[in-house]
Amino acid sequence: KDEQAAQACLFRTLENNPVNHNTDHIARLYTVSKDIQQQLFQYGGLPRLFMKQVITFQECAILIRQPAIEVMSYLSQTDYTRPVNKYVLYGKFGVGKSIILSHILHYASLQNYLLVHIYWGARWFKDMKEVATSVLSPGCMDLPIDAGMWLKQFKIQNLKLLSQLDLKVTKDYSWNQREITSQSTPILELIDFGINRMKYACGVVDALIREIKLASTAGKCKTMVMIDGFNSFTSNHTRIFDDNKMIIPPKKVSLAIPFWDITKDDWCNGAIVLSVDEKANKERRESYLPRYLLGKEGFEHLDPFVPILVEDYNATEFDSMIEYYKDRKWIRNITPSGQRELELITNKNPLVLMDHCKFL
What we know:
With about 350 residues, the chain is an alpha/beta fold. About 45% of the residues lie in helices and about 10% in strands.
């Protein structure tokens, strides 16, 4: 038993609080509790293949990696009275950017950040639920159901914090002749209105983001903006068509506009952690570098930012994952030469390794 415990210590850490993670924990797995999974990832955030693995293994274990520790160390040292810092994760497809973002999101939640989280930016422009001509933003298109779902996600992720902060709306918002959200209405009421009246959900998201920026700058709350696949916002391709059957770019999608706005550095008391990914846009896929993926406009919009490269597993991380798979009985009776072969076949890429080890 002692030997087993010692072996477990090699690839696991008992420190399940990301706030306490440091360089000593790198290349070890920590377990995310069911409550946190329900709170943070109920509407998405963990990649689909990874979620299948979570269900199979009956636990959500995240590998602690250098980029996550790096971002968290920056966040702990930031002067929040200054304009927001931006951190952009980049790297090849499948190196684990989304999982690292999930780790940072968990950290931010425990540090009482208000979470403004989009788990995959491109889905609004490719897999939207419904498109309608905007009621409140002339010339734009609404995604009412997606906006309503995002509001639900925002509410679940931040419910505990919102009930403590008691944030209020700073001005009147008129939705139509009868319905109005008056000044000093609690933010939670505004969110509930958007969820119940999805026709106005995009307008509510816009108002909510504006109020969050004001509240953060006023020092009422600390905000973490996290968007996976941010370069989808700078793409020219969407599957959204207007009434004339013309393709609408993201800047004409009313749901995307507030998130473009909150990634500016005209506010403080927060942080912006983004990722750029080749799969997030259609026209730029030859390189994974931020300048290329974001394009000129997107790069200038985010500049200055801290680029953080995410790479394939190193030897220690690869060994930890293999040990974890063995522990879960996902891999059995593998010889050292078999392990070496797996290392060479997958090139230590996290996604390829997960794919090669999955159930046939």
